[in-house]
Amino acid sequence: MKMKVFLQAYNVWEAVEPKDPKTVIEDKADKRAMAMIYQSISEELLLTLAERTTAKDMWEAIKTASLGADRVKKAKAQTLKAEFESLTMKDSEQLDDFCLKLNGLVARIRALGESIGEAYVVKKILRAVPTKFLQIASALEQFGNLETMSIEEVIGSLKAHEERLSGQVESKEGQQLLMTEEEWSKHEATNGKLLLTREEWLQRSNRGGNQRSRERIDRSKIKCFNYGTYGHFAAECRKPKRDRVQRGEANLT
After folding, report:
1. How far is CA 193 from CA 141, 182, 203, 205, in A?
2. What CA–CA distance (Å, rounded) separates 95 from 89?
3. C-alpha 61: how far from chain center
4. What is the pTM of this model?
């Protein structure tokens, strides 16, 4: 388009696309048009046009090369658009990382000549966020004008909501930790220590360790849980073992 306007401004456009195909182009006008085309193209493209002898032939070659480049750009733009549509934010993903990825795709699509509106991107963001943003996304859709809302406004609202959710999670964790410590202290005050030393456990369970430790204990205070008599451990009792009901009757007696 720029080359066409440039050639028209110098009155040599007729050498490229004459109104009447039968019109004979002056050699001077044709050379001027060729010189202007050479000044407007890159060196890589210039080498491919070295064998062209007229401005019209050069113009057709440039159109063909540009057509192929346009097809490649359109194919790449379609691929990026498909990636844009399938993009979703994960629950564990940070909002800044997701928006950076989204904005990068939008910039690449626009750089390829494809138009993508601001409102379209805003609606995509609200569709792509996880369930933790569902409340703020619904509020923006119901009470906000998505057609005039900017991407920065939507991201700012979602960011504020993310910070508020983060504060609530930290507060709940702190309350849960304090509750656990309080319950632990209450349990110790009611039931005593949860952990016993080996000696304490042996004494409370009426189980002696080795023979020497048993000899140091005053056996007159040791009660046999089998028959309820004193003077020995239940494990040392030589009488037949009784069941729980029999032991209860003996103890009651």
Report:
1. 57, 15, 15, 15
2. 8
3. 48
4. 0.45
CB-CB contact of 89 with 95 (8 Å): yes
As beta bridge partners, residue 230 has 223
Which residue's structure tokens are 């401005």?
55
d(CA 61, CA 1): 15
Q: Which is nearest to 62 in space by CA: 75, 51, 74, 49?
A: 49
Question: What is residue 230's three-state secondary structure?
Answer: strand
DSSP state letter for 65: H
- Start-end of H helices in the chain: 2-9, 27-40, 43-48, 55-86, 95-111, 118-128, 134-143, 151-191, 198-204, 211-215, 244-252
Q: Render pLDDT for 163-180 as a digit per residue (tens, 0 to 9).
A: 887 765 555 555 555 555
Q: How far apart are the first and last CA of the chain?
A: 116
β partners of residue 223: 230
Give yes or no for a contact between 48 and 62, defined as CB atoms under 8 angstroms apart: no
The three-state secondary structure class of 108 is helix
Helix, strand or coil, per DSSP, at residue 223: strand
Q: What is the tens place of the pLDDT at every residue in 123-155?
A: 999 999 998 888 888 888 888 888 888 889 988
- Helix (H) / strand (E) element for 147: namely none
Over 19-60, what HEC string results?
A: CCCCCCCCHHHHHHHHHHHHHHCCHHHHHHCCCCCCHHHHHH
The ranges assigned to domains in the chain are: 2-74, 89-169, 198-252
